[in-house]
Design a protein that fits this description.
heterodimer, A: alpha/beta, Rossmann fold, Alpha-Beta Plaits, 34% helix, 27% strand, B: 386 residues, mainly alpha, abc type-2 transporter like fold, 2 domains, four-stranded mixed β-sheet, 13 helices, 4 strands, 67% helix, binds adenosine-5'-triphosphate, binds magnesium ion
Chain lengths: 330, 386
C-alpha cells in the first residue's frame, strides 16, 4: 500500500524537543497516511529516536505537537499507546525468558489473556516465520531472529501504526531482506509503518523518506522525487587500474558540471549536473594522460546516499559551516 | 460487563502478566533463587550459632608445677563455673605457651612450685595466668573469671587468717567487683537475635532485589518497551515487587520456625500481629528498593546504593547493638529507621506476647514511613521517565 488517498494517521506540526540548551528535534513538520511505509533517515544523533519517542508518547515535546492515531501526544499519550506498536532501537525483550513467555508478558501488558492471547501469539509467530521457536530462550537467538521476535511483540495487539527504530541495525543482509519483506506484508495489510534506518539501500523500500540533519527535517519525498530534485543529472562509474592516483580524481573534478567524485572500491564514481555536456568519451579522454590503460566507463544511477550527501552538504552550506570537502554544493 | 469492570479486569490481567513474568525471570537466575531460598537459612544458622555471645568453655591448659592438693583444689575451683574448661594438662610453662600459640588453648594457669608451702606460711604467692589476646572479648571474659575467683579466694584466705589470729569470726570490709557488659547486655542469647536476623534478611533481600530488578529493566532497555504499553506504572511496580514480598514473608516464616525449633525462640504473641508488622516493614524495604532504582542507571549503582542504605540501616536498628548503648547523638537518628520499629514490635510480640495496643506505635510508624517512601519513589519514577 502506498498510502495515496488514505487518511492521515500521523500529523506532526512544529515538533521540537530540547535537552537543556541542546535542540535534538527542531520544528519538524510532516504527515503520514494510513498504510504508508515512512522512512526516517539521518546520521547518528540527528534526532530520529527522539522524534519516534515523542510520537509514541514516551517523551513530551518541548514545543509543537503531533496527532498520532487521532490523539495528541502532548495531552493524550496514554490513549496513543493502545493504537501503536514500538520496537525500540535497543533490543528490548527479556533476554532470560522464552519467546512465548515474552509474548505472553507483552500481550498481558496490553490486556490480552487466555485463549485469545494464545491465538494471537500463534498468529504473530507464524507471521514472522518463527512458529517453531516459541520455546527458545530469547538471548540464545541470533540477532536477525531476535528482531523478528521483537516485531512479533510489537504487533501482538494489532496496532494501527508500528514504529520501528533501526530495526535492522547490526543484522546480516539476508536477515535484513527478510525483515523488510515482513514490513511490506504488514503495510499491505493496512498497518502504517514508521521506520528509521542507517542503511540507504533500505530507504529505497519506503514510500516516502524524510531526511533528518541535525534535528531538522531537511528533505521529504518519495525516493524517486528526492533523487530527481537533489541529485539531478547523470552518474558515471569508472573502473580500471591506477585510478587511485590523485591526478585521476582531479581531472574528473575539473570536468564541466562535475558535482562530486567518490571512490568506490577500485573505481571512481562521477556525479554530473543535468546540463553537463560530459559523456563517456569525454571522461575517457580526460583520463587518458593520467592512467596507463584504457578505463571502463558506464552509466550508473543516483542513490539515496547521493541524495543524503547532497542534502547534508547543502545544509552545511546554508549554515555557513561548510567543511572543505573539495566539492561544492549543487 | 460495564466499562468500569472491564477496566478493572484489564488491570488484573496486566498485574498477573507482570507477576508471572517476574517469577519466570527470577527463577532463571540461579544466584537469585539461592539468595531467596537457601541463603536465609545459612545466615540464620551461622548468625544464631556464631553470634552466640555467651563466652564459656574457654579451653584452658593447666600447668601444675607444685603438685600439691591445695594447688589442685584451687584449679578445680577456678574451672567449676564452666567459663573455663580444662584441656590436657602441660608439664612446663613452655609447653603451655606452645599450646596457646597453636590455638589448642586460650588460657594457661600456672601453679608455681612451692605454692602450697608459701600459702601455708602465709607468704605472698603468685599464680600465673597466660591469656591468648587475639580474641579480646574472650580473653577479657577469661581474665575476668580468673581474677574474680582469685580475688574471692584471696579474701577468703585473709578472712581465715584473721580469724585464726584473733580467735573469732571477723567481718572484713570487702569490695565486690561485679562486671557489667555495657554493649551487649542481653544480646547474648540467640532468642534475642532471631527476630533481628529475620528483619535483617527481609531488609537485605527485598531492598536489594527490588532495587536491582527495576535497574535491570532500565539497563537492559526493557523498561522503555514496557512504558510504550498501556501498563500503568503502579501496576508495574506492584507486580514487580509482590513476588518478593511473598518470598520475604515465606523466608521470615521459615526463619521464625527454625528459630523456634533450633534456638527455642518462644512465640508468645499473635502471629497475625507479627505478619502485620512484617507486611508494614516490607512496604519500607520495597519502597526503598524502588527509590534507589530510580536514582540509579545501572544494576551496579543500584547494588551500591542499596548497600549504602542497608548497612547503616542494620547498624542503627538495635539488631546488633542496643540503641541505648549507642552514643547519645546517634540515638535520635534511629527514630528514622524502619528496622528499629520492626525489631521493637517483633521482639515484643514474639518474646513478650505483646498485643496490638502495645505495638500500635511501631505498626503506625512502619506504615507511615512505608507509604511515604513509596509515594516518594513513585514521584521520582515518573520524573525520571518523563
Ligand atoms: N535524554 C536525553 N538527554 C540529553 N540528550 C539526549 C537525550 N536523548 C537524546 N539526546 C541527544 O539528542 C540527540 C539526538 O538523539 P537521537 O537519539 O534522537 O538521535 P538518533 O538520530 O536516533 O541517532 P542514532 O542514529 O545514534 O540512534 C543526540 O545528540 C543525543 O545525545
Ligand atoms: Mg536512534
Amino acid at each position: 500500500m502506498t498510502g495515496a488517498g488514505e487518511p492521515t494517521v500521523i500529523e506532526v506540526a512544529g515538533l521540537t524537543r530540547r535537552f537543556g540548551r541542546f535542540t535534538a528535534v527542531d520544528h519538524v513538520d510532516f504527515s503520514v497516511r494510513r498504510g504508508e511505509i515512512f522512512g526516517y533517515l539521518g546520521a547518528n544523533g540527528a534526532g530520529k529516536s527522539t522524534t519516534i519517542r515523542m510520537l509514541c508518547g514516551l517523551l513530551a515535546p518541548t514545543e509543537g505537537d503531533a496527532v498520532v492515531a487521532g490523539f495528541r501526544v502532548s495531552t493524550e499519550p496514554e490513549r496513543i499507546k493502545r493504537r501503536i506498536g514500538y520496537m525500540s532501537q535497543r533490543f528490548s525483550l527479556y533476554p532470560d525468558l522464552r519467546v512465548r513467555h515474552n509474548l505472553e508478558f507483552f500481550g498481558g501488558a496490553y490486556g490480552l489473556w487466555g485463549r485469545h492471547l494464545a491465538g494471537r501469539i500463534d498468529e504473530v509467530l507464524a507471521r514472522v516465520g518463527l512458529q517453531d521457536l516459541d520455546d527458545s530462550v530469547t538471548h540464545a537467538l541470533p540477532g536477525g531472529i531476535r528482531q523478528r521476535v521483537a516485531l512479533a511483540a510489537a504487533i501482538l495487539h494489532q496496532p494501527d501504526i508500528v514504529f520501528l527504530d533501526e530495526p535492522t541495525a547490526g543484522v546480516d543482509p539476508v536477515a535484513r531482506r527478510n525483515f523488510w519483506s515482513l514490513i511490506r506484508t504488514l503495510s499491505e495489510a493496512g498497518t502504517t509503518i514508521f521506520v528509521t534506518t542507517h542503511y540507504m539501500d533500505e530507504a529505497e523500500y519506503c514510500n516516502r523518506v524524510g531526511l533528518m540533519v541535525a534535528g531538522r527535517l531537511a528533505a521529504l519525498d518519495t525516493p524517486a522525487a528526492l533523487k530527481a530534485r537533489h541529485v539531478p543529472g547523470r552518474v558515471w562509474m569508472i573502473r580500471g587500474p591506477s585510478l587511485g592516483r590523485p591526478e585521476a580524481r582531479q581531472r574528473l573534478a575539473a570536468l564541466p558540471g562535475a558535482i562530486q567524485v567518490q571512490t568506490m572500491g577500485a573505481g571512481l564514481r562521477l556525479r554530473l549536473s543535468a546540463d553537463s555536456p560530459v559523456d563517456a568519451d569525454t571522461i575517457r579522454r580526460a583520463l587518458a594522460t593520467v592512467v596507463d590503460q584504457p578505463v571502463e566507463v558506464e552509466a550508473d544511477e543516483a542513490t539515496l546516499e547521493d541524495v543524503f550527501l547532497a542534502v547534508v552538504d547543502a545544509d552545511a552550506w546554508r549554515r555557513g559551516t561548510a567543511i572543505a570537502r573539495g566539492e561544492g554544493p549543487p | 460487563m460495564t466499562d468500569r469492570r472491564a477496566a478493572l479486569w484489564t488491570l488484573l490481567v496486566q498485574l498477573r502478566a507482570v507477576f508471572i513474568k517476574e517469577v519466570r525471570e527470577t527463577s532463571q537466575d540461579r544466584r537469585v533463587v539461592f539468595l531467596l531460598t537457601v541463603a536465609p537459612f545459612i545466615q540464620l544458622l551461622v548468625f544464631g550459632f556464631a553470634i552466640n555471645l555467651d563466652v564459656d568453655h574457654v579451653p584452658t591448659v593447666v600447668v601444675d608445677l607444685d603438685g600439691s592438693p591445695e594447688g589442685r583444689e584451687m584449679v578445680q575451683a577456678m574451672l567449676a563455673d564452666g567459663t573455663l574448661a580444662a584441656t590436657s594438662p602441660a608439664s612446663s610453662v613452655q609447653e603451655a605457651e606452645a599450646m596457646l600459640e597453636h590455638g589448642d588453648a586460650a588460657v594457661a594457669i600456672v601453679v608455681p612450685p612451692g605454692f602450697a608451702r608459701d600459702l601455708a606460711r602465709g607468704e605472698p604467692t603468685e599464680m600465673q595466668v597466660l591469656l591468648d589476646g587475639t580474641d579480646p572479648s574472650r580473653s577479657g571474659v577469661a581474665s575476668g573469671a580468673v581474677s574474680r575467683y582469685l580475688g574471692e579466694r584471696g579474701l577468703d584466705l585473709a578472712r581465715q587468717r584473721l580469724a585464726a589470729a584473733t580467735g573469732g569470726e571477723r567481718r572484713l570490709p570487702s569490695v565486690e567487683v561485679r562486671p557489667r557488659l555495657l554493649f551487649n547486655p542481653r544480646l547474648s542469647s540467640a532468642i534475642y537475635m532471631v527476630p533481628g536476623i529475620a528483619g535483617m534478611l527481609l531488609l537485605i533481600i527485598t531492598t536489594l532485589i527490588t532495587a536491582m530488578g527495576l535497574a535491570r529493566e532500565q539497563e537492559v532497555g526493557t523498561l522503555e518497551q514496557v512504558r510504550v504499553t498501556p501498563l500503568p506504572t503502579p501496576v508495574l511496580m506492584v507486580g514487580k515487587v509482590s513476588p518478593f514480598i511473598l518470598v520475604g514473608l515465606i523466608d521470615v516464616t521459615l526463619a521464625i520456625a527454625a528459630g523456634a525449633t533450633v534456638f527455642d525462640v518462644p512465640i508468645r504473641g499473635s502471629m497475625a500481629l507479627f505478619y502485620a508488622l512484617t507486611a508494614a516493614f516490607l512496604l519500607n524495604t520495597v519502597g526503598m528498593g524502588l527509590f534507589i532504582s530510580t536514582i540509579s542507571q545501572t544494576q551496579q549503582q543500584a547494588f551500591i546504593g542499596a548497600f549504602m542504605l542497608i548497612l547503616p540501616g542494620l547498624l542503627l536498628s538495635g539488631t546488633l547493638t542496643p540503641i541505648h548503648a549507642m552514643p547519645g547523638w546517634l540515638q535520635p537518628i534511629t527514630l528514622l529507621n524502619p528496622l528499629r520499629y520492626f525489631l521493637e514490635g517483633v521482639r515484643a510480640v514474639l518474646l513478650e506476647g505483646a498485643r496490638l495496643d502495645d505495638v500500635a506505635f511501631q505498626l503506625g510508624m512502619l506504615s507511615l514511613y512505608g507509604v511515604a517512601i513509596l509515594v516518594a519513589a513513585s514521584i521520582r519514577f515518573r520524573k525520571t521517565v518523563a
